[in-house]
Amino acid sequence: RILVFLRNRGYGPKERALHEADVSALARLPEGLLKDLHYETYKPILTHHPLFKQMAQYDESCFMMICHIATEQKRLEPGEVLFRLGEVATRMFYVVSGDLNYYLGMHRAGMQVQSPSMACEAVLWMQWEHTGRMVANSFCDLVTVVSESFRDIIATSSVLRPNYKQYACSYRGALFPDCDDRDSFHRISDICSEDQAASFVLSAFEMETLNRNRSRTI
Fold first, then answer.
1. Measuring CA to CA, which residue among 55, 179, 213 is closest to residue 124?
2. DSSP code of residue 88
3. Residue 155 exposed, middle or buried by CB count within 10 Å (0-12, 13-18, 19+)
4. What is the pLDDT of residues 146-155, one digit of tens each?
5. How far apart (Å, rounded) are the C-alpha atoms in residues 196 and 175?
6. How far apart are alpha carbons 216 and 212 in whole angstroms?
7. Half-sphere exposure of residue 130, counting CA atoms within 13 Å on the CB side?
8. What is the predicted pLDDT for the residue at 208?
9. What integer pLDDT is reported at residue 23 of this predicted model?
């Protein structure tokens, strides 16, 4: 609501989503208000992913800290490269607006990536090098989750830490079912599979486990 109000008052570049960096006065908000602003801004975006949707429902304090500490906004100009093949990844990406092309490996044919697509979840759970290149076709707005901050926050969770560990194990196991097949790395896309993430959530966040973990914190 705050960002919408400021956008309507002429802050930020025309025809683009308003970012926090466009309004320097926001940096002077009290910590509590800034935390609420980040939660309100990022929750509708992050919860497109099944894991973050589960986290927002059952581990709200952890989710709020991820919104406040680990999440950032990013803009791209047409033709700007978001990441390149072989670069060390540091964050997960959500496409909020605009469209990009993703080129797996050395392929010349790219796939179009638009909202609400997500990329590079792998970096949240392991060291990751980009397996392709992503380039903006238009003006783009993205939200990023910084992997190091994300891991630091979930490590302190008193509610669902075992569930996050199980999700991470399922994720890594699906990426590398054969530990000796290192060539498979080059066939893995940076683009996230929402259906696959949903299946990991089902196995890692069984309802009885959620209820048991929540009861320990009461």
1. 55
2. B
3. exposed
4. 999 999 999 9
5. 11
6. 7
7. 22
8. 47
9. 65
Q: Put residue 105 in one of left, alpha, beta given phi > 0 → left and psi -120 to 50 → alpha.
A: left
Low-confidence ranges of the chain (pLDDT < 50): 2-3, 5-12, 180, 208
Note the pLDDT of residue 213: 57
Q: Judge contact between 58 and 84, C-beta under 8 A.
A: no
Q: How far apart are CA 199 and CA 206, in angstroms?
A: 11
Report the C-alpha gap between 158 and 144 in whole angstroms: 25
Secondary structure string (H, E, C) spanning 117-130? CEECHHHHCCCCEC
Residue corresponding to tokens 């979930």:
154
What are the helix (H) ranges across the chain?
Answer: 2-8, 31-46, 50-58, 60-65, 147-154, 161-175, 194-204, 207-216
- Give tens-digit pLDDT for 156-174: 998 899 999 999 999 998 8
pLDDT at position 211? 58
